UniProtKB/TrEMBL annotation:
Residue stretches making up the Enolase C-terminal TIM barrel domain: 138-422
NCBIfam families reported for this sequence: eno
Enzyme class (EC, first level): lyase
Family annotation (CDD domains): enolase
Protein's name in the database: Enolase
Catalytic activity: (2R)-2-phosphoglycerate = phosphoenolpyruvate + H2O
Alphabetic keyword roster: Cytoplasm, Glycolysis, Lyase, Magnesium, Metal-binding, Secreted
Binding-site positions, (2R)-2-phosphoglycerate: 162, 336, 365-366, 387
Annotated organism of origin: Sulfuricurvum kujiense (strain ATCC BAA-921 / DSM 16994 / JCM 11577 / YK-1)
Gene: eno
Cofactor(s) needed for function: Mg(2+)
This protein's GO CC annotations: cell surface; extracellular region; phosphopyruvate hydratase complex
Role, per record: Catalyzes the reversible conversion of 2-phosphoglycerate (2-PG) into phosphoenolpyruvate (PEP). It is essential for the degradation of carbohydrates via glycolysis.
PANTHER family with a match to the protein in the record: ENOLASE
Length: 422
């Protein structure tokens, strides 16, 4: 019987130059695989704990404690277990930690090992990761959400909303959609240049120009779609991640670029207005994680026509999602494995969402690496959507390029495109 024979970790760099965990697992048959954990900037308050050293090394951001936890306690707890029982391996780490949020071991330690175990199991069986995690039923290529203008805490510009994304919905397959999106991206660069705006990139590879309202980025993207020769709304739609938890101030939400502070109701009206003017099909974190009344209002006003995605709101946590489902809040969930801490728990949340008709958007973090685990994971779970930045930074294209590869392998692959929102 094949078992987990060695577990180890080292500290490596993420795409922002911050240290993160790379975990490696070796099986008794000699199979050896690794995984690198991502890291967020606009994190939800209820996310699992990312263990940081807090000393002077790397300005307090080192992860040597998490690395040590993998090399000692985690290794001791899971060596000898079967790599083919992911739930059991993940449960052993959960039990070892003993807290709700991986407060002892660190979710960065646990997730790294969890992903490396899945990868090693797949390799040992000689099948791709998406096939191992999703079985014969894994066949939906996700529609990408490409973040082409960055603001908020992902860039040093004036734009308040964090992400302005395009979604290639009117295409027959993933590769065509990705190509068209990249064309829009290049046209956007020309348009920004011609306006004399900055074309420096934010953390996720979108441009980070100073624009004078939160509507203006949508206008320039509309121009870019047209200039690239595509029909906005039919072929390329727009998605936003406001990351509104980051905008909370005394008395409401602060929109610095517009020099005003608005209430939840006013912000919801702003979205209603934007959705009436532009082909916006998805809004993520339109209200803050603590503003469930605002979320309720948003869901009542737009929930029947726009995808409303809870990120900071649900933090990939099945119990919080269950509360949201019961209260009729949002209609979709962002899936970030490091918010919850293991592969199995991520799958549990996706199952709950899918059973209740909530859409699932697999997602990267703003701090990423060359690891493309989420590309396979999105296909495995038939998520239908993935958000992983623009096509102009290697840690983001790693995911898109992996999906292009998967697309050639999945015989009966489905690309949902416009049917996602019908
Ligand atoms: C990807 C995101 O950013 P971060 O990783 O900083 O939370 C997000 O908010 O959806
Ligand atoms: Mg978000």
């Amino acid at each position: 019987m094949i078992f987990i024979d060695e577990v180890s970790a080292i500290e490596v760099m993420d795409s922002r130059g911050n240290p993160t965990v790379k975990a490696t697992v070796q099986l008794s048959d000699g199979t050896r695989e690794s995984a690198v954990v991502p890291s967020g900037a606009s994190t939800g308050k209820r996310e699992a704990l990312e263990l940081r050293d807090g000393d002077a090394r790397y300005m307090g951001k080192g992860v040597l404690k998490a690395v040590e936890n993998v090399n000692s306690q985690i290794a001791d707890a899971i060596m000898g277990l079967s790599p083919f029982n992911q739930a059991m391996v993940d449960a052993a780490m959960k039990e070892l930690d003993g807290t709700e949020n991986y407060g002892n071991l660190g979710a960065n330690a646990v997730l790294g090992v969890s992903m490396a175990v899945a990868r090693a199991a797949a390799k040992s069986l000689g099948i791709p990761l998406y096939r191992y995690l999703g079985g014969a039923n894994a066949m939906v290529l996700p529609v990408p959400m490409l973040n082409i203008i960055n603001g908020g805490s992902h860039a040093d510009n004036s734009v308040d909303f964090q992400e302005y994304m395009i979604m290639p919905i009117g295409f027959d397959d993933f590769s065509e959609g990705l190509r068209a999106s990249s064309e829009v991206y290049h046209n956007l660069k020309t348009i920004l240049k011609n306006r004399g705006a900055n074309t420096a990139l934010g953390d996720e590879g979108g441009f980070a120009p100073d624009l004078s309202s939160n509507e203006e980025p949508i206008q320039v993207i509309m121009e870019a779609i047209a200039k690239a020769g595509y029909k906005a709304g039919e072929q390329i739609a727009i998605a936003l991640d406001v990351a509104a938890s980051e905008l909370v101030t005394e008395g409401g939400y602060r929109l610095d670029s517009e020099n005003r502070t608005v209430t939840s109701a006013q912000l919801v009206d702003y979205y209603v207005d934007l959705c009436s003017k532009y082909p916006i099909v998805s809004i993520e974190d339109g209200l803050s994680e603590d503003d469930w009344d605002g979320w309720k209002l948003l869901t009542e006003k737009l929930g029947n026509k726009v995808q409303l995605v809870g990120d900071d709101l649900f933090v990939t946590n099945a119990s919080i999602l269950a509360e949201g489902i019961e209260k009729g809040i949002a209609n979709a969930i962002l899936i970030k494995p490091n918010q919850i801490g293991s592969v199995s728990e991520t799958m549990l949340t996706v199952r709950l969402a899918q059973r209740n008709g909530y859409k699932c958007v697999m997602s990267h973090r703003s701090g990423e690496s060359e690891d493309a685990f989420i590309a396979d994971f999105a296909v495995a779970l038939n998520c239908g959507e993935i958000k992983t930045g623009s096509t102009a930074r290697g840690e983001r294209t790693a995911k898109y390029n992996r999906l292009l590869e998967i697309e050639t392998e999945v015989m009966y692959g489905e690309y949902l495109g416009s049917s996602l929102f019908n």
